[in-house]
Amino acid sequence: HLPKRPKRIECFDISNIHGKYAVGSMVVFHNGRPEKSQYRKFKLSVEKNDDVGALKEILTRRLTHGEWGKPDLVVVDGGKAQLRVAKMLVTPVFPEAGIVSVVKNEKHRPSHLLGDTRVAVKHRKAVLLANSEAHRFGIGYHRKLRGKI
Question: Which of 44, 95, 107, 147 has the highest local Cβ count within 10 Å?
């Protein structure tokens, strides 16, 4: 899977405080560089602390926009449940896209990657960079909604 470097990486992250001010972010890297004009923010309808439900909402909303392009690699923040949701939603629309999940430790640092292990190992640096940028972008939007900026 993904024998060459992915041209388009889309990474998704969720930010909330115990379910309040829930937002999602999507960042796009094209040929290894951030494409900030293609970043997207999602204000979520989820009212409880449900990262899986929130990810499902933003992926569903993203997938209705075919004009946004075709990802070669989709990166989600979370564990097995988030990876499962991403595969369930993304694969029917973009069957050639690789899907990887970034699992964090108790200090919210990347611990390991799930998904296609060949993709995860070969493109680890790009995956972690996209994940970090999605988190930064999402937190900024989250703070703005809370009035903390």
Answer: 44
DSSP state of 123: T
CA atoms within 13 A on the CB side of 115: 33
Query: Are 142 and 24 a contacting pair, CB within 8 Å?
Result: no
Instruction: Burial-class residue 95 by CB neighbours within 10 Å (0-12, 13-18, 19+).
Output: exposed
Helix (H, G, I), strand (E, B) or coil at 12: strand
Rounded Cα–Cα distance for residues 131 and 149 (Å)? 22
Backbone angles phi, psi at 85, to 5 degrees: -65, -45
d(Cα 141, Cα 148) in Å, to the nearest integer? 10
- CA distances from residue 124 to 79, 96, 114 in whole angstroms, order as listed: 16, 19, 11
pTM value is: 0.90
- Tell me the sheet residues that pair with 73: 9, 98
Provide the pLDDT for residue 2.
Answer: 57
Q: What percent of the chain has pLDDT over 70?
A: 92
